[in-house]
Amino acid sequence: MRILITGNMGYVGPVVAAHLRAAMPQAELIGYDTGFFADCLTTPDGLPEHLLDAQHFGDIRDIPAALLDGVDAVVHLAAISNDPMGVRYEAPTMEINARASIRLAALAHQAGVRSFVFASSCSMYGFAEGGPRREGDALNPLTAYARSKVAVEESLHAMQPQAMTVTCLRFATACGMSPRLRLDLVMNDFVAGAVAANDITVLSDGTPWRPLIEVRDMARAIEWAIGRDAGAGGRVLSVNVGSDRLTLQVRDIAQAVAKEVPGTRVSINTEAPPDKRSYRVDFALFRQLAPHHQPRIGLEEAVRGLRDGLTAIAFADGRFREGRCIRLKVLDALAARGRIDAALRRVAAAERKAAVAA
């Protein structure tokens, strides 16, 4: 089996590649990525891409159709991956996350790809009162990131592919250790603060609900989706991926982290205005369709894994919110050095020299 993983050099991609290499040792794994975050390594073990058979570099907006020749499955992770980046780069977010994703799915369909796996998000439910949200409930995307995910899902359902199985995995909020760690995620931020400074600062009043999923469990869900038959959920499926036991209020996540890192202080901004990004999600459909690929990693294990991973790399950066584990900071640094433009496209060396000369 030949599997193309887009965005493989981000936070989730290296974990997915490692899982697929272990679960499908004979598979041919191909990566495609811009490489913007290639050097944001948080592992002592070197480049995780050594597990791949090939690595290609390029903008997902320009992915060549020929790269899909002979591909059996596409795992589409490439995206502008959070709300702050979507605010700063709203137009590119829609170009990359929505229009380029829709084009990629069309190219995959034309190339005869059997399985298309789209990394979607539960954030599309937005502020959701009245109980856990099911897949057929109304969506309330509050950010460019969430709106882009909705746009792709709507297009994929309208595509009506005849021979390609499409699975939109509406993931809960990612957490856990990775060879390219992100610390702009709620639980990861808390653990980093605890490890670096024995301090957790909750910027909200702590009441918003967040469903979480550890990155290794995300990889297991992707494995299931690659092999999913159209009889299990339909030719095009949108499904919530996570678990009830990891659906928690932000203040409870903070307290759980503090328990695993003794001596940690927790401060909660009880005067903060309500955070509209609050939702609970119903995972019953995923339990029904994927009983053997359910999330296994609980909150305590996820916290300990991240704590131990940060300790292994001697993490002690109390100013980590300004550092390379915050994806927006990486993009801003690339822009400041003239490496990318406002559309998040690479600037060629000749163009940079011309700009400096001018």
Helix content: 25-40%
CATH topology of the domain at 2-181 and 212-245 and 280-297: Rossmann fold
CATH superfamily of the domain at 2-181 and 212-245 and 280-297: NAD(P)-binding Rossmann-like Domain
End-to-end CA span: 51 Å
Largest sheet: 7 strands, parallel
Q: Tell the overall outline.
A: globular
Count every beta strand, where a strand is a DSSP E run of 2 or more residues. Answer: 12
> What CATH first level of the domain at 2-181 and 212-245 and 280-297 would be assigned?
Alpha Beta
How do the SSEs run, as a string of H and E? EHEEEHHEHEEHEEHEEHEHHHH
| Helix vs. strand class | alpha/beta
Strand order of the largest sheet: 3-2-1-4-5-6-10
Tally of contiguous helical segments: 11
Cα Rg:
20 Å
What would CATH call the architecture of the domain at 2-181 and 212-245 and 280-297? Answer: 3-Layer(aba) Sandwich
Query: Which residues form runs of ≥5 with pLDDT under 50?
Result: none
**Whole-number average pLDDT?**
93
Assembly classification: single chain
Query: Could you tell me the strand content as a percent range?
Result: 15-25%
Concise structural overview:
The protein has helices spanning 13-23, 83-88, 90-111, 144-159, 186-197, 215-227, 250-260, 284-289, 299-312, 327-336, 349-357; strands spanning 2-6, 28-33, 54-57, 73-76, 115-121, 165-171, 173-175, 199-202, 209-214, 236-241, 247-249, 265-268. With 358 residues, it is α/β, with parallel strands linked by helices.
Q: What would you note in describing this structure?
A:
This protein has eleven helices and twelve strands. The protein is globular. Helix content is 36%, strand content 16%. Helix 1 crosses helix 6 (215-227) and helix 5 runs parallel beside helix 7. The protein has helices spanning 13-23, 83-88, 90-111, 144-159, 186-197, 215-227, 250-260, 284-289, 299-312, 327-336, 349-357; strands at 2-6, 28-33, 54-57, 73-76, 115-121, 165-171, 173-175, 199-202, 209-214, 236-241, 247-249, 265-268. It has a seven-stranded parallel β-sheet with strand order 3-2-1-4-5-6-10, sandwiched between helices. It has a three-stranded mixed β-sheet with strand order 7-9-11. Strands 8-12 form a two-stranded parallel sheet. With 358 residues, it is α/β, with parallel strands linked by helices. The longest helix has 22 residues, at 90-111. The protein has a domain at 2-181 and 212-245 and 280-297: Rossmann fold.
